[in-house]
Amino acid sequence: MIIHHPILGPRDAQEFVYLGDANLIDRPDGMVAGVEVFHDYLYNRTNPAGEHQELWYHEQGDRSWLVVTRNTVTHEITRVELARDVARARRRTK
Amino acid sequence: MASLQPLTALGRREATTVTHGPLTISERTDVALASVAARNGRAADLAKAAQKADVPLPGPASHQQGTPYSAFWTAPEMWFVEAPYASHELIVDLLKSALADTASITEQTDAWVAFDLSAHDLTRLLERLCNVDFAARPTGYATRTVMEHLGVYLIKHGPGAARLYGPRSSAESLLHAIETAAHSVW
Amino acid sequence: MRYSGFRVIAEALTGHKGWKPVWRDPEPQAEYDYIIIGGGGHGLATAYYLAKEFGQARIAVLEKGYLGGGNVGRNTTIIRSNYLLDGNEPFYEFSLKLWEGLEQDFNYNAMVSQRGIINLIHTDAQRDAATRRGNAMIMHGADARLLSRDEVRQMYPWLNFDNGRFPIKGALMQPRGGTVRHDAVAWGYARGADMRGVDLIQNCEVTGMRIENGRIKGVETTRGYIGAKKVGVAVAGSSSKVMAHAGMRLPIESHVLQAFVSEGLKPLIDGVMTFGAGHFYVSQSDKGGLVFGGDIDGYNSYAQRGNLPVIEDVAEGGMALMPAIGRVRLLRTWGGIMDMSMDGSPIIDKTGIEGLYFNGGWCYGGFKATPASGWAFAHLLAKDESHITAKAYRFDRFLKGLMIDEKGQGAQPNLH
Amino acid sequence: MTQSHRIEGGQIDRTKTLRFTFDGIPYQGHPGDTLASALLANGVRLMGRSFKYHRPRGPISSGSEEPNALVELRTGGRQEPNTRATVAELYEGLTANSQNRWPSLRFDAMGVNDKLSTFFAAGFYYKTFMWPKSFWEKLYEPIIRRAAGLGSVTREEDPDGYDKGFLHCDLLIIGAGPTGLMAGLTAGRAGKRVILADEDFRMGGRLNAETYAVGDAQGADWAAATVAELSSMPNVRLMTRTTVVGAFDHGIYSAVERVSDHLLTPAKGKPRQILWRIYTGRAILAGGATERPIAFENNDRPGIMLAGALRAYANRWGVKVGERVAVFTNNDDGLRTAKDLQSRGVDVVAVIDSREGGDLLPGIRHLRGAEVIDTSGKLGLTSITVRQLNGRSETIAVDALGVSGGWNPNVNIHSHHRSRPVYDPAIAAFVPGKDGPPGLLVAGAAAGQMSTHAALKTGRDAAIAALDLTTAPELPQAEDAPVGITPLWHVAHGKGRAWIDLQNDVTVKDVKLAKQENFTSVEHLKRYTTLGMATDQGKTGNVIGLAIMAELTGRSIPETGTTIYRPPYTPVAMGTLAGRSRGREFKPFRLTPSHHWAKEQGAIFVEVGNWLRTQWVPKPGETEWRQSVDREVLATRKSVGICDVTTLGKIDIQGTDAGAFLDRVYANTFSTLAVGKCRYGLMLREDGIVFDDGTTARMGENEYVMTTTTANAVAVFRHLEFCRQVLWPEMDVQLISTTEAWAQFSVAGPNARKLLEKVVDQDISDAAFPYMGAANITVGGLRARLFRISFSGELAYEIAVPTRYGDALLREMLARGAEFDPIVYGTEALGVMRIEKGHVAGGELNGQSTALNMGLGKMVSKKKDSIGMVLSQREGLTDENGYRLVGVKPVDPQAKLTAGSHFLEKGAAPVAANDGGWLTSKVYSPHLGHDIALGYLKGGDKKIGQRMRIVNLLAGLDTEVEIISPHMFDPEGERLRG
């Protein structure tokens, strides 16, 4: 697969390490949330057959964490963003 | 007082040079290296300080030559800065005094083995080693890539000139891989 | 009809005219007592045991494609019960025992072949872990042996003993491990279930679930609505898709695991072998092909196909272990969709919806589990309580911190 | 030997003769020959045996689709099984042997299977061999396994090298027949970067095998001229002997270049084959088409081949397969074979054309509405029986029969993303369907465009479309004959066997049986009968099989559907896929700074990940490893020992939020750590399980140096980047690994300080540099770092210098500290000392254990949010009677312990219900004089002082032990503060 890195352009997916659902960005605050909230955050997945936002780490590249929007049926990638930007934006809207 | 004798990454007293066919592989031990990462929100301050100190901070995927400092981009708001080892062995101290608290600066000199590759055209060699479209990239292109399971930085200094920074502990494996590829090509 | 050597000879001498269809192709009825969604190995085994062992009737298996078309027909056919943890080992040992009597039980030769499995050891730490595991296996009634380097060398003298990057120091062996002809498992269960009146309905995809007041009433399918008192879902690979019809999110991701077969070769490898210093495991089929695999591709996928890096990674492991196979050719690659769970272990449990039961999360261990999974799921469906060997396979184990994490990788499915 | 069947013409170099052997018999051929063409030229038709019935077989094709003519090529470590004689390029000294036969190809004892074939119907084995139960592994299966398989594998290491590479282009063209050449010309002249790959050693595809013209020239000559033009373009890379084998996501293709397979051995340093990964925006599949046979009784004899192959052998290789040849066809293309052969002077005795009516070929006996219903000839064809339109049968003596059932477009690669081909009745074949690999266009015969004109035109148009070109070359004139075909899949006749899958011996009867037993889905058909699962993956047989199933079920062919092709297009050698990563080069080595010193000393090394670490350093006279390890431990605890700990991960953490960041990633607190001090840190995963541990030092207000375990260095760094970028992007934290930048040594033992005082420039007295101190120092003026931390329980330091000085620092310490008899210890002694002290490491940090399990529960601060804090409180992880780390010693000091053994109470049966836990690590303690171990024991904290057993059922060991505190040596820690 090829991931179109928002800074570096097309890069082979082999350079990346996959983590999973981009909802992992939304970590609850441990001083507020309890086990149930953390359980849902860490363990449950939508796991769609279709468009999926997911985290990839450019380990053999610039070490950016990316949010990749990829179709899990066709593997087509339609959007790639820096996870840091996505995380910051999500914070702002909260 | 101790006066310690350094070893090169290949475990020798002197830098190693290997030739095969048109290719020359030269180990470089005369480069001081440090990482410079902008402090959060301080990129503009860093740019100013760097300009004043003649530290180039090139854009993504590029290397910029300078004197005494050259640099290449390694990550968002992060660079590796090169300088002559003889004059800049204490590159971290020098950069810290120049860039102050605009950046986090860390010594990288001995984290890497540096090889300069030269031949009339390196494309045929590099296509056996890494997934970089070397021919299509401009001089000054700098990227991280993978060679034989090893993460390396590759800097293009011309169609027939490139520098590699590979993990120092694997210097022998990396050299072996380059030599094997060279024998396969030439 | 009963299969036997005499029957084969008699039919051969009379032009094979007497062989009957192995299953019917019935039209779906309006309602069943039990609907099993998924006509793969686990679904068919569930239906078979529901009918045979638990005396249940009015059972249908709904399959969106062809029977046995899921992972039961696209795996590397290994059976073993060499698990470490208390939550797993009794279940897989139960499964292995069922394999051992399966062919006589369902009157179909699935070529259950216990030629042994060895997990190679390359470090002292691996030997310690193998010792822990082997002892756990024996304590659970399974068989295990720790082989020395010389013993391994006697079995496979042509492995890379002398020039390896990582030395072979021995192996953990389970002599009762082995392989099974995978398609035949599906067919054997299908035939056995059909003979007991189970309706096997192919080309029937579930498109929705009718749930009223927290209770399942039936399922919408591409062949119309079908009512059911109880619905069991056994669709590993597609679990999240199907359970989404019930509004559930699961502790599961779908990933692709590739598998490989070489051209046919004269016998080289008798048993099953796993390389402990790379991603590679291998056996040789009765037809002569080396059947091998490695790691999952590592990203969520429903595509039933993989990419090149894993193929290369697996070949590197193969060559590192077996330098003689350089000129053996890889014939075919394929991909199966795995339910990768959050701790690497499966789930066989009730759901929050009355009458709806779930079986999934098999990661890439589903094939060997087929008999026990079917049995335990049938037990759960028929009696509303977990089978004794499957009690740990609950949904709430993550909430309670009772993970069954054989590899110790935590809540990251692609590392299990 | 004379080449009895050689005729004039062809693209072979008759000026040179190549000698080769087949089954030990010497033959001659010419450059340009394949093994098959050369054997046929020598009148050899019998080249193999089929898989199941061991039927005698000859080649049916002239290409990579060959199911029959498989040989073992070369000998020794280079022996390769199942090589298709039809694509094996002839070279001087080639050695080939037939396979899957005993004792010889002509007299194969397993041929008895053929006589018993009625008992071996499809799937018979599923119905028998079940009784008695134990006989399967002992009797039936061994017989089956010995009989099965094709070629045999050498047990020697493959002596040849393999290589890999990456290529990038604008357009990849797969296949260099008329379609691919025209596409190449179009894109090449437009200046685009083009790769044109063809599996053959000569580009031109079918043009080399045909006689018709392209423009003013013979097709083959046009091809040669086009290749010459393309090879002059710097933007075009022509790759012969290169098979594109797979299409992967996002425009990545795999291709195998056979660099040296046409040579006796590869040139020195050169690979046998190269695996290319080709990255391209666009690709054109111009792979042509494959002819398929027609199923009729005994259609498998040597001498019966595809009509197009018969023609190719004559036109390209100057070989007549037989003296008296017939052709059996259902389409116009078959007639070409008859015409071409006749024009080359071969005696074409009959053309059996299943189609009724229509024109007759002039000068040839052309039977319309006729079918071949049977053949004879034990080891090769001697005659065919033809049923004419009027129903009369006639036997015709022939020694070669060309069969054409039509042509299947080579859609294979287009299916690699699971796109299903669709049936095109106009050509009675499957053509590429929807949803193929994005960016892949299909042109020419692969797209069902069967004429030469259509090939050229669609090739050009595909290049224009792929690259959005505005200019294109003129199309040369070429034939544009329609596909005249009336499908005939099998000849209905009699009770004999008519083969569909030649290699796997799948016959029409087997399809009928599959239907009868309701294996009617194409997937069931394939899996039940093994149709299409042989080494040719059904390239010639699949379509016939499913067409017959369609007939039997009354469904149309589209309704019946088709299985899909999976990668690779043709089988690929494992060595090629592995490339250079084999043997000692399987993974790169990581060498420590002390490696050269240790090697000089004859040290024993151990693999730790990719690192080679010193395991112990034997002294002269030490014959057993324990002697060395005991000595290293005792010497360290007595005076001073040095250990290279460079492999531990080091991460530089800077920024104004560095301390706050560490508070969140460590379970314990770091923001309060004073500058110049270190602290042991425990890192959890979010699920509350211990992830890693290590010592982290605060080197400045905003500057920390973290250490990780060797094993987790990369994973921890990745995790920290995740936390920094994804979880808390607002924090001012910068990270970089410095693992390899510093050579770091542990210096431990009562004389550690005294030794270090001799090399460092600063005051390191206990007052100036107390326990858990950290500082930037100098060693003879050289920048260095010093940490006062201990893993051994001794007074200990870790000292670091820039890596290039690591070797010298070690030698310096040994030399300057000579009066203290310093020793260098390896990982074994390190392990002994840490276990004596009860420190957790690999065996305990197993990814399944909590801080509580390790006796470190109090370290998890609940006063702050940190990764894993919340979920570590789940009930299953806080069980009072859960596992606790304990120390273990045998009651009998002579008794041996084994890591991995399990705890049992005295008198308890060794069953799971009584399983108390297990030993995680075990060593011999030379101080205590007996084995000691760490273990996880259920409720272990309450069992200190009790006696239990540990058992190792794998070795039959059952040992009484005492449960003790894990702090087995100097529990008060007096030594390390000394």
Summed up:
The complex is a heterotetramer of chains A (94), B (186), C (416) and D (978). The mean pLDDT of chain A is 96. Chain A contains 2 helices and 6 strands; from the N terminus they run E-E-E-H-E-E-E-H.
CATH top level of the domain at 162-288 and 409-467 in chain D? Alpha Beta
- Give the assembly state of these chains: heterotetramer
**Proportion of beta-strand residues of chain D:** 25-35%
The CATH homology group name of the domain at 162-288 and 409-467 in chain D: FAD/NAD(P)-binding domain
CATH topology of the domain at 162-288 and 409-467 in chain D: FAD/NAD(P)-binding domain
Distance between the termini of chain D: 91 Å
Question: Which residue ranges of chain A are poorly predicted, with pLDDT under 50 across at least 5 consecutive positions?
Answer: none
Low-confidence stretches of chain D: none
The structural class of chain D is alpha+beta
* Integer-rounded radius of gyration of chain D: 37 Å
Largest interface: C-D, 125 and 124 residues
**Helicity range of chain D:** 10-25%
Corresponding CATH superfamily of chain A: Folate-binding superfamily
Which helices and strands, and how do they pair?
The complex is a heterotetramer of chains A (94), B (186), C (416) and D (978).
Chain A: E1 2-5, E2 9-12, E3 17-21, H1 35-43, E4 51-57, E5 65-71, E6 77-82, H2 83-93
Antiparallel strand pairs in A: 1-2, 3-4, 4-5, 5-6
Chain B: E1 17-20, E2 23-28, E3 31-38, H1 43-52, E4 63-64, E5 70-75, E6 78-84, H2 85-88, H3 91-99, E7 103-107, E8 112-118, H4 123-126, E9 142-147, E10 150-158, E11 161-167, H5 171-185
Antiparallel strand pairs in B: 1-2, 2-8, 3-6, 3-7, 4-5, 5-6, 8-11, 9-10, 10-11
Chain D: E1 18-22, E2 25-29, H1 35-41, E3 48-49, E4 56-57, E5 70-73, E6 80-84, E7 94-98, H2 112-115, H3 135-147, E8 162-174, H4 178-189, E9 194-197, E10 213-214, E11 217-218, H5 219-231, E12 236-239, E13 242-248, E14 252-258, E15 273-285, E16 289-291, E17 304-306, H6 307-315, E18 324-329, H7 332-343, E19 347-353, E20 366-368, E21 371-376, E22 383-387, E23 393-397, E24 400-404, E25 407-409, E26 422-424, E27 429-431, E28 440-442, H8 452-467, E29 499-501, E30 506-507, H9 508-516, H10 522-529, H11 542-553, H12 557-560, E31 572-573, H13 574-578, E32 590-591, H14 595-600, E33 604-608, E34 611-616, H15 625-638, E35 641-644, E36 649-654, H16 658-665, E37 677-684, E38 690-700, E39 703-708, H17 713-727, E40 734-737, E41 742-748, H18 752-757, E42 774-779, E43 782-787, E44 796-802, H19 806-816, E45 823-824, H20 827-837, E46 883-890, E47 902-904, E48 917-925, E49 930-938, E50 947-952, E51 957-964
Parallel strand pairs in D: 1-7, 8-9, 8-15, 9-12, 15-28, 17-24, 18-19, 18-24, 19-20, 32-34, 35-45
Antiparallel strand pairs in D: 1-2, 3-4, 5-6, 5-7, 10-11, 13-14, 14-15, 16-25, 21-22, 22-23, 26-27, 29-30, 33-34, 35-41, 36-39, 36-40, 37-38, 38-39, 41-44, 42-43, 43-44, 46-49, 46-51, 47-50, 48-49, 50-51
Helix pairs in contact in D: 4-5, 4-8, 6-7, 9-10, 9-11, 15-20
